[in-house]
Amino acid sequence: MRICQLASGSKGNAIYIESDTTRVLIDAGLSARELTRRLEGIGVAAHDLDAIIVGHEHRDHCLGAGPLCRRYALPLYCLPQTFAALPSIGEVDYCTLGAGERLNVGDVAVEAFPVTHDAVAPVGFVLNVGGVRVGIATDLGVVTRLVLERLQRCQVLVLETNHDEQMLHDDPYPWHLKQRVRGTHGHLSNHQAAELVQELLWPELKAVFMAHMSETNNTEKLARESMQCVLNAQACCTPRLIAGQVGVASESFSC
Ligand SMILES: [Zn+2]
Ligand SMILES: [Zn+2]
Fold first, then answer.
1. How many domains does the chain have?
2. Is 71 in a helix, a strand, or coil?
3. Lowest mean pLDDT among 155-159, 169-173, 206-210
4. Closest ligand relative to 85 C-alpha
5. How far is it, in rounded angstroms, from Cα 116 to Cα 186?
6. pLDDT tens, residue by residue, 31-53
7. Residue partners of 105: CB distance under 8 A and separation at least 6
8. Which range of residues forms the domain containing residue 52?
9. Could you tell me the distance, in angstroms and rounded to a whole number, from the CA of residue 237 to the centre of ligand 1?
10. Nearest to 97 by CA among 63, 124, 64, 67
11. What is the mean pLDDT of residues 92-110?
12. Nearest to residue 157, comparing CAs of 253, 230, 92?
């Protein structure tokens, strides 16, 4: 399997995942043209995708979904509430995804689980890709018991490390925006993400993608330091830490 973060952050999110026979995109938050270009960059033709799966209706997760689905005749999977809220999605081949249900896209098993975020019905995902369990949660207001339970025993995690608490505090953002980011319907800080990883450590954890990093209130160095602190204090596993931001070359993990 291979997983590649094509884009990550408030300007757009897209994660490419492939098994031996199936290729899916989780979120399509850049233009169709840019996503096609980034897929080409990792040797994948957009028309070879099997599906696009969208976690919630914010622009940074769905911008290119409609155009990509139409251009390459791809099915779009998301919750019905999310589909109804997608901005100007147009005519697409829509497939229903239910929270808590498991469905197969080719040989990739996909399960969506609800998260708290300021969208109509936001979900994270757990995928089984050729026997590798991949957990994805990039817009989490707070780590609920359900989130913690669903993300257990993953070999690969894609988790948001959105902001550094001190940088957010010092930022000239209006107060209500800061509250939105750090509230229970916003995003996780580096520290909160590291605490989550601490709960999810197990000997088979191979990689942690640090996702949805703020461009103004975080740096890769700070996010890495928070994670490394947790990883250094244990001996059960040494997962690779992978960062990816909009405009930065994507990094892959294969196994
Ligand atoms: Zn969002
Ligand atoms: Zn987002």
1. 1
2. helix
3. 169-173
4. 1
5. 8
6. 999 999 999 999 999 999 999 99
7. 22, 24, 50, 51, 53, 77
8. 2-244
9. 31
10. 124
11. 95
12. 253
Bridge-based pairing state of the strands 75-78 and 51-53: parallel
Q: Identity (one letter) of the amino acid at 252?
A: S
Q: How far is the CA of 110 from the centre of ligand 2 (A)?
A: 20
- Ligand 2 centroid – CA 71 distance (Å): 24
Residues 6+ apart with CB under 8 A from 180: 118, 186
Collect residues with CB below 5 Å from ion ligand 2.
Answer: 60, 139
Whether 80 is covered by a domain: the verdict is: yes
* Sign of the alpha-carbon dihedral angle for 219, 184, 30, 13: positive
In a domain, residue 250? The reply is: no
CATH number of the domain residue 19 falls in: 3.60.15.10
Structural domain includes residue 221: yes
State residue 25's pLDDT score: 98
Mean pLDDT of 109-124: 96
Kindly state the average pLDDT of the residues 246-253.
Answer: 67
255 within domain boundaries: no
Distance from the alpha carbon of residue 195 to the mean position of ligand 2, in angstroms: 20
Strand-pair partners of 109:
104, 128
Residue with tokens 């622009």: 59
The number of the ligand nearest the C-alpha atom of 9 reads 2
Q: How many angstroms separate the alpha carbon of residue 56 from the centre of ligand 1?
A: 7
